[in-house]
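Figure-free illustration: sequence to structure, shown twice.
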Amino acid sequence: MNRFNIPFKILNISKKIPPSPSIILTTTAEVKNLKKNHEDVNFLSYSNNENFEGYVLRVISAYRVGFRDFYSELTFGIDPGNKCGLIVFLDDYYLISHCCFDKQDLLNKIKNYIKYFQIDNPHQIKLTLKFGRGVLPVTQELVQETYHLFNERNDMKVLLIDEHKSSKIKIKHKTKEKKISKDEAAALILALRDGIEINQDNYRAIFNQIKSKKLKREEYKKENFKNRNENKIFSDEIAKIAENVLNGDITLTNSSQMIKEIRNNMQDIFKQ
């Protein structure tokens, strides 16, 4: 739990469960002896036959997103490169992030998250993948592999995101165990941005337009301030929002809307 910055206490099984909102981690053998004494007390029991990583993911999901039987949406922010940053949102809330050391590691993690949250889910989970386009050949390979892996999914959205100054925004988020890496931070910034939506029919043509520079940068780029001071103010504001996202204080949707409002307000101010 320390690794994922989740506060916890060790309870003596013979003692009464505190009557406050909490998630009780126990085993299938012990859970039958426990009594729920508060409507916001939930039990997550671990079976010896269960994959332990999957159980930990259940715990993280319940803590950061809320305790429920099924979830409906996964969003992935991806910063491609020699090392790939990956950030995962579940039902609009930050779930987890990784620094992946090769493309296959990245794709495997994405596949595993989708597979896990689709288990026993009666509805197909909605997918959104936001790819940074800074290292275009790597991005194209990842997009192509994504369509190959998930070509049967009906509810999947893929977007290309401009990486302009994404690595310049300093996020100081740090848990007890680790500091967020620059690749993970870049993936978060990309997840906060809008981009160009592509599909299986047009993505090759879109990449060719980018390579030939027929697709103007302005179609991606949103931050278009004229001087260094404007850029710094805007970057600092985004960093604050990113911190709130990582802390679970705001959703991805709300944070994107906040950034749009800040951008519009700043452009109005500097026009005066």
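We now fold a second protein in the same way, so the two outputs can be compared directly.
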Amino acid sequence: MNAKRQMKVGRETSEVTYIVLNMDSDHSETTVSDRLLANPGVDAVVVDLERKGVTVRGQHLDVLALRASIESVGYQAA
């Protein structure tokens, strides 16, 4: 799995970053962000369209479910 998970000291908040290979427009950014925000525990989604990066922040994140969410709307998560 290429997602990286980082735990912040003193908090139960975690951060997961994915590369979304075919995310290349404002529409794809919105589609991916909206889908990720629908997952339990997700507090924020930050997209770097230029680098095709998506960072998800929240509590008790399920990295497999997040990846599946990206792929469920037609994008490739790495």
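Summary for the second example: Confidence is low (pLDDT under 50) at residues 1-10.
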